[in-house]
């Protein structure tokens, strides 16, 4: 028993430790965010609500069926419900019936409401999918920010390690009298500044991890982390397409465009429904009813009055009525005309919004396309600058080692290398993110491979 308990605790401990050490990939972060986002859950409930509206619209095409019953007891003067004669006795009366109504024609408004409800459900689905697209982009941006900050932290630590070696070598040069002690103090100040930069970078890593965890709605910030991978510039052929080609492709599948277009179609349906109120309404009805009263007196075959039983009265006094009703709108205070006018205005506004959304998408794609090319050039330039700065730094170190350069000039050379390496990291991840956005607009799922 003790062995089993120990084994269980060991398995639990290993599982807990594994969970704490989990490193999230981008694909895992995106999937988790989409599945657990509270706004997504709200939009999903809205979608379910719209589907209920569709059932309401379908029910409007079906006939209604209602049953009714009533019981009354009268004491004193009243009228007998069967022969309409006055009576002063206590009377117990019961009546019941079933009725059905159906709209035969209403300007096809019910059918149009059903079509609108179906379109509204589709529109809500587009809105939900568009929200998920935005979440994917936000998560990718936050994820890449962590990678960028982590890489910057590695660079800072590597720079500090070089400075520590320079500090050790400078101490030896001071002891040998090659350089002045003031040069050693300058190197020590550089090392202290780099230590501060490491602390700042560690804070940026932590903050970016918290930002992503909040997007995923994970509260265990301390143990949340992403996979420790270094991503190089990914290969992509997206720039082989023109912005116009990417825009045309985006119009076919972008959910925000589909949502905007569906709003135009909904406005068109609303206008059709509003115009349908001009048409006459024809409805049909069918009713069946019966009654019972304990003061009912009818003659038998011999002409002697008697009160039939409950069951007999139900058959004696039952009846069916049916017919049709036609309502013709003539004047209703311009209500119908005003509703039509409002629907026309709403339709025009939705058309303008649709055109604006397409224009915004085209503008965004053109901007991202320019950003991709610009950031790539900036990244290539940063790499060349870094290479030149390193060569200059190596030359400065050689001169410093033989006492031909003071510590301030040497520290400046090292600082330029630090800045160049930071520029490489920033431009690299800025380019990767813009590239992924452009690919996303072209229908390529977000992935870092």
TrEMBL record:
Keywords carried by this UniProt record: Cell outer membrane, Membrane, Signal, Transmembrane, Transmembrane beta strand, Transport
- Judging by the UniProt lineage, the source's domain of life is Bacteria
Is the Lipid metabolism keyword given for this protein? Answer: no
Q: Does the UniProt entry include the keyword Membrane? A: yes
Q: Where in the cell is it found?
A: Cell outer membrane
Q: Which InterPro entries match?
A: OMP_efflux, TolC-like
Signal peptide, first to last residue: 1-19
GO MF annotation terms: efflux transmembrane transporter activity; porin activity
Q: Which GO terms describe its cellular component?
A: cell outer membrane; efflux pump complex
Main subcellular localization, coarse class? membrane
Q: Which family does it belong to?
A: Belongs to the outer membrane factor (OMF) (TC 1.B.17) family.
Q: Which PANTHER family does the UniProt entry name for this protein?
A: OUTER MEMBRANE PROTEIN TOLC
Q: What is this protein called?
A: Outer membrane protein
The organism encoding this protein is Maribacter polysiphoniae
């Amino acid at each position: 028993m003790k062995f089993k308990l120990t084994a269980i605790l060991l398995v639990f401990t290993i599982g807990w430790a594994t969970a704490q050490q989990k490193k999230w990939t981008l694909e895992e972060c995106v999937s988790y965010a989409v599945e657990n986002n509270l706004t997504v859950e709200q939009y999903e409930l809205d979608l379910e609500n719209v589907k209920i509206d569709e059932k309401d619209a379908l029910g409007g095409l079906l006939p209604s069926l209602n049953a009714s019953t009533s019981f009354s007891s009268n004491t004193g003067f009243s009228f007998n419900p069967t022969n309409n004669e006055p009576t002063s006795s206590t009377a117990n009366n019961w009546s019941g019936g079933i009725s059905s109504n159906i709209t035969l024609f209403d300007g096809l408004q019910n059918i149009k409401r059903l079509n609108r409800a179906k379109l509204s459900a589709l529109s809500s689905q587009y809105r939900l999918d568009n929200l998920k697209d935005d979440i994917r982009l936000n998560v990718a941006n936050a994820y890449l920010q962590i990678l960028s900050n982590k890489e910057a932290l590695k660079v800072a630590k590597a720079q500090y390690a070089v400075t520590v070696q320079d500090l050790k070598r400078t101490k030896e040069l001071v002891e040998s009298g090659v350089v002045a002690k003031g040069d050693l103090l300058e190197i020590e100040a550089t090392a202290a500044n780099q230590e501060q930069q490491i602390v700042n970078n560690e804070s940026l890593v932590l903050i970016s991890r918290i930002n992503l965890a909040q997007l995923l709605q994970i509260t265990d910030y301390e143990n949340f982390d992403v996979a420790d991978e270094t991503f190089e510039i990914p290969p992509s052929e997206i720039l082989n397409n023109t912005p116009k080609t990417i825009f045309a492709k985006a119009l076919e599948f972008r959910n925000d465009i589909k949502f905007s277009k569906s709003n135009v179609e909904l406005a068109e349906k609303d206008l059709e429904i509003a115009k349908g109120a001009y048409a006459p309404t024809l409805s049909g009805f069918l009713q069946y009813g019966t009654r019972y009263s304990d003061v009912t007196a009818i003659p038998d075959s011999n002409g002697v009055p008697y009160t039939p039983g409950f069951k007999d009265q139900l058959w004696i006094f039952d009846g069916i009525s049916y017919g049709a009703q036609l309502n013709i709108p003539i004047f209703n205070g311009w209500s119908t005309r005003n509703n039509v006018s409002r629907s026309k205005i709403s339709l025009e506004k939705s058309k303008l919004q649709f055109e604006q959304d397409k224009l915004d998408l085209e503008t965004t794609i053109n901007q991202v396309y320019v950003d991709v090319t610009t950031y790539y050039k900036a990244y290539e330039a940063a790499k060349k600058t870094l290479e030149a700065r390193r060569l200059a730094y190596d030359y400065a170190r050689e001169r410093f080692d033989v006492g031909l350069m003071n510590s301030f000039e040497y520290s400046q050379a090292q600082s330029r290398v630090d800045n160049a390496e930071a520029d490489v990291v920033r431009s690299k991840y800025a380019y990767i993110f813009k590239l992924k956005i452009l690919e996303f607009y072209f229908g390529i799922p977000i992935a870092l491979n």
